[in-house]
């Protein structure tokens, strides 16, 4: 049992990527030491990359250990009933100094059959965008496997994919099967199902320091792709001191909270809550204790922590499972 319930912060798991840069440090204050750091995994139970608590009496314990000891208290009654002791979501910040590869994620059914994994439904919140930065999301028009393969062979795949200019505050919701790529010049908060299954379709013929190209998964992707045009852009309200819904899907609910002052929060204990601080600074006040957070921080509120207050001036993403 969790003897003391409080907001949990975790050590960031930093990932070097061929397309990464240094903005995770300059924009989000992450302790990176490499000039090609592409990802900070904020909250993860992916095998080999399990988050470790960075604060309080549970410091040094892994997220899996806490779930194992106190599944209802941490995950929430409804989440535990649905997922058992699996933590169903993965939270990241990404810095794309260069374009990411064009890729796709399989749905739950295909991922279970092939990899014994969840699929990967995900969303992106654009935290920072250079001028003219863009993303690739889905096809310009309804397509099919033959057209896709023909364009892939001729290196004209980009001509049939939808290319969207983006700015700070834009949100995109990507259901499984959506062909996508984060473009150069973007810092992104990413919320997704717990899965590290990615099929890479095209990588702009890039080579690494040893001159090797990265593996492609063209055949695996064929069955996973949704060839129809999709609408991924999400609009949302920005009412002060309220949870404004951005995405509400079977895998997660994400709200946007423009915090100015104090907001009392009451939860029912059925799901954990995660806050990602997108901008500004805020505090969580609970049982006469105050916990302070700044831009780039991600915190996990255990489900058993049912009454607390948020206070400060910040833009916050609030995520839970409903």
TrEMBL record:
<keyword id="KW-0479">Metal-binding</keyword>
<keyword id="KW-0862">Zinc</keyword>
<feature type="binding site">
    <location>
        <position position="122"/>
    </location>
    <ligand>
        <name>Zn(2+)</name>
    </ligand>
</feature>
<dbReference type="InterPro" id="IPR051804">
    <property type="entry name" value="Carb_Metab_Reg_Kinase/Isom"/>
</dbReference>
<keyword id="KW-0413">Isomerase</keyword>
<feature type="binding site">
    <location>
        <position position="105"/>
    </location>
    <ligand>
        <name>Zn(2+)</name>
    </ligand>
</feature>
<feature type="domain" description="Phosphomannose isomerase type I catalytic">
    <location>
        <begin position="10"/>
        <end position="117"/>
    </location>
</feature>
<dbReference type="InterPro" id="IPR014710">
    <property type="entry name" value="RmlC-like_jellyroll"/>
</dbReference>
<dbReference type="InterPro" id="IPR014628">
    <property type="entry name" value="Man6P_isomerase_Firm_short"/>
</dbReference>
<dbReference type="GO" id="GO:0005975">
    <property type="term" value="P:carbohydrate metabolic process"/>
</dbReference>
<dbReference type="Pfam" id="PF20511">
    <property type="entry name" value="PMI_typeI_cat"/>
</dbReference>
<feature type="domain" description="Mannose-6-phosphate isomerase cupin">
    <location>
        <begin position="245"/>
        <end position="320"/>
    </location>
</feature>
<dbReference type="InterPro" id="IPR046457">
    <property type="entry name" value="PMI_typeI_cat"/>
</dbReference>
<dbReference type="InterPro" id="IPR011051">
    <property type="entry name" value="RmlC_Cupin_sf"/>
</dbReference>
<dbReference type="Pfam" id="PF21621">
    <property type="entry name" value="MPI_cupin_dom"/>
</dbReference>
<feature type="binding site">
    <location>
        <position position="180"/>
    </location>
    <ligand>
        <name>Zn(2+)</name>
    </ligand>
</feature>
<protein>
    <recommendedName>
        <fullName>Phosphohexomutase</fullName>
    </recommendedName>
</protein>
<dbReference type="GO" id="GO:0008270">
    <property type="term" value="F:zinc ion binding"/>
</dbReference>
<dbReference type="InterPro" id="IPR049071">
    <property type="entry name" value="MPI_cupin_dom"/>
</dbReference>
<dbReference type="GO" id="GO:0004476">
    <property type="term" value="F:mannose-6-phosphate isomerase activity"/>
</dbReference>
<feature type="active site">
    <location>
        <position position="200"/>
    </location>
</feature>
